[in-house]
């Protein structure tokens, strides 16, 4: 058992209890088809982001690759310069660039990681102390726990159910529509969409790798962009929520 003193994983829910959030009235198949087609069209017209990790925001226990595209948690605390933008307690890091307008798409390979948090956050989120991943706190994220429990950071949290295991997560941010959507980039299906995402200030990509008790830290890797400015992989099935 490995304990990292003075650090904490990101808390995806208040109090730690997950609840299933289901609509009281299900949309018709025609409505779902129309909504999904509109989402596909927006993803297709988005700009694929050549994203890197912002080391100035990284918690001191994180290990970041030389190309700034992969991150995992380590056992040794680095003595990096204390900065206002650095997360001092929660094990997470922000991506670059930040977004103020437009449509943007990127993918993260989560590999065999059993715990992670991915999404976007407001530029003004608290960086000091333990953070709570909720939309009320400025985080729009999807979280995996114990290798199978997938949830969205709504209040109350939303349990998500998908076929198979996510290995590559596609994230689509539409600042104009104030939506952020998550996809199974390999399986070609929609996972979840947050609506009414605040566009009043810049948003940053957000990544938090696991700190499992057995010390087998998983790696999160930003997928390389083959054709910058375009979307290489599109999804073709799923339900827009």
From TrEMBL:
<dbReference type="GO" id="GO:0061630">
    <property type="term" value="F:ubiquitin protein ligase activity"/>
</dbReference>
<protein>
    <recommendedName>
        <fullName>RING-type E3 ubiquitin transferase</fullName>
        <ecNumber>2.3.2.27</ecNumber>
    </recommendedName>
</protein>
<dbReference type="Pfam" id="PF13765">
    <property type="entry name" value="PRY"/>
</dbReference>
<keyword id="KW-0863">Zinc-finger</keyword>
<dbReference type="InterPro" id="IPR001870">
    <property type="entry name" value="B30.2/SPRY"/>
</dbReference>
<dbReference type="InterPro" id="IPR003879">
    <property type="entry name" value="Butyrophylin_SPRY"/>
</dbReference>
<dbReference type="InterPro" id="IPR003877">
    <property type="entry name" value="SPRY_dom"/>
</dbReference>
<feature type="domain" description="B30.2/SPRY">
    <location>
        <begin position="31"/>
        <end position="225"/>
    </location>
</feature>
<keyword id="KW-0862">Zinc</keyword>
<dbReference type="GO" id="GO:0008270">
    <property type="term" value="F:zinc ion binding"/>
</dbReference>
<dbReference type="InterPro" id="IPR013320">
    <property type="entry name" value="ConA-like_dom_sf"/>
</dbReference>
<dbReference type="GO" id="GO:0005737">
    <property type="term" value="C:cytoplasm"/>
</dbReference>
<dbReference type="Pfam" id="PF00622">
    <property type="entry name" value="SPRY"/>
</dbReference>
<dbReference type="InterPro" id="IPR043136">
    <property type="entry name" value="B30.2/SPRY_sf"/>
</dbReference>
<dbReference type="InterPro" id="IPR006574">
    <property type="entry name" value="PRY"/>
</dbReference>
<dbReference type="InterPro" id="IPR037960">
    <property type="entry name" value="SPRY/PRY_RFPL"/>
</dbReference>
<keyword id="KW-0963">Cytoplasm</keyword>
<keyword id="KW-0808">Transferase</keyword>
<dbReference type="InterPro" id="IPR050143">
    <property type="entry name" value="TRIM/RBCC"/>
</dbReference>
<keyword id="KW-0479">Metal-binding</keyword>
């Amino acid at each position: 058992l490995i304990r990292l003193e003075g650090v904490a994983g990101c808390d995806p829910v208040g109090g730690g209890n997950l609840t299933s959030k289901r609509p009281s009235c299900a949309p018709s198949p025609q409505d779902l088809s129309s909504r999904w087609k509109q989402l596909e069209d927006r993803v297709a017209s988005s700009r694929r982001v050549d994203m890197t990790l912002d080391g100035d925001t990284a918690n001191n226990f994180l290990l970041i690759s030389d190309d700034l595209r992969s991150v995992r948690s380590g056992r040794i605390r680095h003595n990096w310069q204390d900065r206002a933008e650095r997360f001092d307690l929660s094990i997470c890091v922000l991506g670059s660039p930040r977004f103020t307008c437009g449509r943007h798409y990127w993918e993260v390979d989560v590999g065999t990681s059993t715990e992670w948090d991915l999404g976007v956050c407001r530029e003004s989120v608290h960086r000091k102390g333990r953070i709570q991943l909720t939309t009320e706190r400025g985080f729009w994220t999807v979280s995996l726990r114990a290798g199978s429990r997938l949830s969205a950071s709504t209040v109350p949290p939303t349990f998500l159910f998908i076929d198979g295991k996510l290995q590559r997560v596609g994230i689509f941010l539409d600042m104009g529509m104030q939506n952020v959507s998550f996809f199974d980039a390999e399986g070609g299906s929609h996972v979840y969409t947050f609506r009414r995402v605040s566009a009043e200030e810049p948003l940053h990509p957000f990544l938090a790798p696991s700190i499992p008790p057995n010390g087998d830290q998983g790696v999160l890797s930003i997928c390389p962009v083959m054709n910058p400015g375009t979307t290489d992989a599109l999804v073709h099935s799923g339900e827009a929520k």
